[in-house]
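We give this protein:

***
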Amino acid sequence: MDNEKLTERVRILVSEVQLEENKQFLTLVIPAEKFHDLAVNLKESEDTAFDYLFCLSGVDTVKHLMVVYHLYSTKQGHSIELKVRTEDRENPAFDTVSDIWCAAELYEREVWDLFGIRFNHHPDLRRIFLDENWKGYPFRKDYVDEVNIVDL
């Protein structure tokens, strides 16, 4: 399926989808509350068959916290980049996709640990890199490290 058909397929499922310019991937921004249902559909539908989550990343743009999902279909040979975002910096949360792609379980733990983005219904959401007593989320742009004086 080419990018135009993939975009139309997602638009049928989520009319509020936004297309972003990207030279490497078809990039779509999805409303957070519709993302989980869309992800299930994209994996289980024969024409999309996105069976491989090959990257899940947290991003802080200062204005938004977001999670970026890179999906690939080993059956159909196409890929897509999906983004969900929130302006809620105090309690950022999205639904987990670890029930859809098991690789997401560790990726989501990493994003939780470093960005503080919570994943609702995650089976084991706990720190993966930092000590349990660590204060703050070091990959956020507003993070201040008084001890190591990391200032970008």
The longest strand covers residues 52-60. The chain has three helices and seven strands. The mean pLDDT is 95. Residues 13 and 38 are 7 Å apart (CA to CA).
